[in-house]
Amino acid sequence: MRVGVLTGGGDCPGLNAVIRAVVRRGVGQHGFDFVGFRDGWRGPLEGLTMHLGIEECRGILPRGGTILGSSRTNPFAIDGGVERVRENLAAAGIDALVAIGGEDTLGVATRLAELGVAVVGVPKTIDNDLSGTDFTFGFDTAVNIATEAIDRLHTTAESHHRVLVVEVMGRHAGWIALHAGIAGGASIVLIPEQPYDIDEVCRLVERRFRSEYAPIIVVSEGATAREGDATLQEAELDAFGHVRLGGIGDRLARQIEERTGKEARSVVLGHIQRGGTPSAFDRWLATRMGLQAADAVADGDFGTMTALRGTAIVRIPLAEATGELKLVSPQEYAEAQVFFG
Ligand code: F6P
Predict the structure, then answer these.
(1) Fold entry, domain 140-274
(2) Which residue lies with its CA nearest to atom 15 of ligand 1?
């Protein structure tokens, strides 16, 4: 059996660990041979392939990024795109495809599966906002990086009696902000699911200063003020209709300075959260997801996605994962609120 593998969307620590596990299990246990598709859905769309065997996977377990490359190409947004994908898969002799990606990449996989393409999905995103799985790999690494940054910012904020605003990734969901905020002892955590009130933020900042400590505010890039829209960096949309977010940290710092008279600075962690080596947890999760994906292909269990449920790796219908985003609930947010101010 000939199996194609692709990685799509924003990259994420652990992608290489999945690729390695799919290939090791696929070759060793099931006798598959593999074709790597380059740069997400652009690979099948334009017939961009690379050889993918055990040799190519040597030494990649701890390496960030993806040896296959990635892109946000959407074949459904291109005239004749789906037909070209099907033709190129047939030309490369592909019997089945393993697509590793987030809501967009797996959304394409879901639609292709409905059209009869033999595809198995593996969920990835540092944002952890895919339904159906307890965690996505990459998230733990991002949270660790953000937590370390918060720890470091505490000491410089204290020395200068300043407010420090840390902007983290999270377009629709505040998981990184919530987990890193709790782990790092943030004074305020602002997430997209709970529009914030700037007066309340300033009140908490002033309260924190009264106890002689400097406030650390963790804000998701997609957070919004009660009265406003998400802060946009670029109005242009990508192939999946997303605008590029960013700048909320700066805006908040300015508003806090104006309203409270306290000095405020902002730090944008940006792609640092996505780059570099995966945490041990993410290597473990990604590896187990890869093993399960290879087994799903061997079983002909297409239209499914691997998922973490408790400590078990299971298979669920792709549509279940891509139908609705997994958001932070008010109860989970309330746990962080205990420590505000
Ligand atoms: O999808 C994950 C994510 O990390 C989002 O939180 C963020 O908005 C986006 O990727 C940014 O990615 P890029 O800069 O690659 O467009």
Answers:
(1) Rossmann fold (3.40.50)
(2) 10
- Residue of 105, 169, 248 best suited for mutating to test ligand 1, as the one with most atoms within 8 Å of CB: 169
Asked whether the beta carbons of 338 and 189 are under 8 A apart, the reply is no
Ligand 1 centroid to 295 CA: how many Å? 30
CATH architecture assignment, domain 2-137+278-322: 3-Layer(aba) Sandwich (3.40)
Pick from 165, 208, 194: nearest CA to 332: 194
At 194, is the secondary structure helix, strand, or coil? coil
Strands 33-37 and 232-237: unpaired
CA of 8 to the centre of ligand 1 (A): 12
Model confidence pLDDT, tens digit, residues 198-219:
999 999 999 999 988 999 999 9
Cα separation of 263 and 253, whole Å?
A: 8
Residue 211 Cα to chain centre, angstroms: 36
pTM of the predicted protein model? 0.94
Domain span(s) for CATH 3.40.50.450 in the chain: 2-137+278-322
Catalytic residues: 127
| pLDDT at residue 232, as a whole number | 63
The β-bridge partners of 2 are 33
Q: Please report, as a single letter, which amino acid is at residue 51.
A: H
- The DSSP element (H or E) to which 155 belongs, if any, is helix 139-160
For residue 45 and ligand 1, the question of a CB distance below 6 A is answered with no
Q: Measured on CA atoms in the order 40, 44, 47, 50, is the torsion positive or negative? A: positive
CA distance 26 to 296: 10
How far apart (Å, rounded) are the C-alpha atoms in residues 326 and 132? 8
